[in-house]
What does this fold into?
Amino acid sequence: VQLQESGPGLVKSSQTVSLTCTVSGGSINSGGYYWTWIRQYPGKGLEWIGYIYYSGSTYYNPSLKSRLTISRDTSKSQFSLNLRSVTAADTAVYYCARGDGYNYADKWGQGTLVTVSS
Amino acid sequence: HSVLTQPPSVSGAPGQRVTISCTGTNSNIGAGYDVHWYQHLPGTAPKLLIYRNTYRPSGVPDRFSGSKSGASTSLAITGLLAEDEADYYCQSFDTSLSGWVFGGGTKLTVL
It folds into this structure.
């Protein structure tokens, strides 16, 4: 299984960041996996953003819940992140990952840098 | 700030052993949730190093080992190699978040 993020690298403040993760070599609607978004701030810290379960249920970080939507397109083997009303604090490298039922990420994408400009 | 606590940096000479601690609270590690460790080289995808406290994925050398005692866990690396120089993160599940939490990361320098 391989994961690859895609999306714009530069977004203006107050707009929406839309990222897509394309999964190859496996199905996103089987296997009991959590298809996950994680971000890494410029200062190094990692933050769990949320995930969409193989069944379609979603789970979000409470700190982002009001601005966040994670969705999927099983026909394209993709899952996506929409983060609304972004600010400079949302500048980070965004990773998509496959989460195991024991709550760890066993596969990661390479990451994509999103910079929020004013 | 990160929910799990790790030292910012550790160092060791080639061939030596180092340990990286990861401390949580009663809503994550102390509640019995597993801890997982990742190795991250800048510009690359993080790599799963240890899962469920002590298990190594296929391909990870047995120089890497994990342990857990109560709300504290640690990663040990023996026989240090220059290629081990990287950032290491611990991660667990947190009941107050109903999601994953990470440590702040530890930079390992091989002297």
Notes: Chain A is about 0% helix and 55% strand. The longest strand of chain A covers residues 17-24.
